[in-house]
Amino acid sequence: MSETIELFVGCAPNGEDAESQMVLEYTARKHSSLPINIHWMKHSTDPKSYWYGWKSETWATPFSGFRWGIPEFCGFKGQAIYMDSDMIILHDLAELWNEPWNESAIIMGKGGSRFCVSKWNCSRAKNVIPSVDQIRNTPYAHQQLAHGLPQHPHLEQVFDRQWNNFDGEDDELDKIKILHYTDMSTQMHAKYAVPRLEAKGRKHWFDGEFREHRRQDVQDLFDRVYAEALDAGYLPQQYESKQWIPYQKESQKGYRASNGFDVTRGE
Questions:
Q1: Contacts of 45 (CB under 8 A, 6+ apart)
Q2: pLDDT tens string 185-242
Q3: Nearest one of 165, 190, 175, 173 to 259, comparing CA atoms
Q4: How deeply is 77 buried, as exposed, middle or buried, from its count of CB atoms within 10 A (0-12, 13-18, 19+)?
Q5: E strand segments, 57-198
Q6: Domains of the chain and any CATH numbers
Q7: Mean pLDDT of 40-51
């Protein structure tokens, strides 16, 4: 097994989530006992890029469907970890990297079609996942794969849910391995990102209404590690693009979270 963690991160192409990206990278490297090679997966205007030309008009985020291209990107060799950019890593990723595979799984995840943190067995995915050319050109491929894969239980291996904890759930922070602030309306980086973007005449990709996070300790955690990342030399500008890269995605106006703790329902 490789001694370098291959970490694929789905992110917006123009640095809309730059603060989120820097917190993810800082916390991942801070806690890891192994070196990490980060692949930022984002839309590109370069025809030579692997991430060029993906039909994303039905995606909830600008990067939702890129995860299905990871095994082919890796040449159907080895393994890889995927995660969305809205993560705070609180535990050593080497533990997940070294978690053994069962006899048949091609992917590890939380279960229930939630592959926003996942580990791929790239060699086993060949001839199971459609080709990237097919996925790239099919607008609903992401939804079809996310909901279709759990229909074949032998292909999915369920890991400790704390590797993909939704907005703190009902857990103490010291129990969480990866905190996924998945509710798009309460993402803690927005209070930094939106003013930064507005100063440049740009908008964030989330077009719904931003709200306060339901847990103050989660917001405080983000603020604390964000400040640590700045002190360590991470800057939002490092994650911005020089030119605005256009893309399509599904509108999130009227958004309701699917994390089980939807603040729009008073929970």
A1: 52, 243, 245
A2: 999 999 999 999 999 999 999 999 999 999 999 999 999 999 999 999 999 999 999 8
A3: 165
A4: exposed
A5: 79-84, 87-89, 107-109, 117-121, 156-158, 165-166, 178-180
A6: 1-253 (3.90.550.10)
A7: 97
